[in-house]
């Protein structure tokens, strides 16, 4: 279900999908995916609203997607043996993400 959240970074209300909820002393913190900006952000629980009827039917401008059969790699450096090998990683490196964005442009 889509909601409307206030993004501090963009300084506006945005449509979002809630990814996770984290409880804190002052309330809840929501991790959201902004469906019209293709960004993730954290939002306080008081900055979320239910999306009104007609606005819920507008298609999202951004979609989450993955490259088929493409896994992230990183450079593993062993200082003791003075070697470097490319191996699997849990997440994409920042440099790889920037390089991919440049290729898309």
From TrEMBL:
GO MF term set: ATP binding; hydrolase activity; RNA helicase activity
Superkingdom of origin: Eukaryota
InterPro entries in UniProt? SNase_OB-fold_sf, Tudor
Q: Where is the signal peptide?
A: none
Tudor domain mapped to chain residues: 3-68
The answer, when asked if ATP-binding is one of the entry's keywords, is yes
* UniProt entry keywords in alphabetical sequence: ATP-binding, Helicase, Hydrolase, Nucleotide-binding, Repeat
The EC number(s) given in the record are 3.6.4.13
**SUPFAM superfamilies, alphabetized:** Tudor/PWWP/MBT (SSF63748)
Q: Name one GO biological process term.
A: germ-line stem cell division
What reaction(s) does this enzyme catalyze? ATP + H2O = ADP + phosphate + H(+)
Q: What is this protein called?
A: RNA helicase
According to its UniProt entry, this protein's organism is Mystacornis crossleyi
């Amino acid at each position: 279900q889509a909601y409307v959240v206030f993004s501090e970074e963009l300084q506006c209300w945005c449509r979002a999908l809630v990814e996770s909820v984290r409880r804190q002393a002052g309330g809840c913190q929501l991790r959201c995916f902004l469906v019209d900006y293709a960004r993730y952000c954290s939002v306080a629980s008081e900055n979320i609203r239910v999306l009104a009827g007609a606005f819920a039917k507008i298609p999202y401008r951004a979609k989450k997607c993955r490259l088929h059969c493409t896994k992230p790699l990183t450079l593993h450096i062993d200082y003791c043996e003075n070697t470097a090998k490319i191996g699997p990683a849990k997440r994409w490196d920042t440099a790889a993400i920037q390089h991919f964005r440049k290729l898309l442009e």
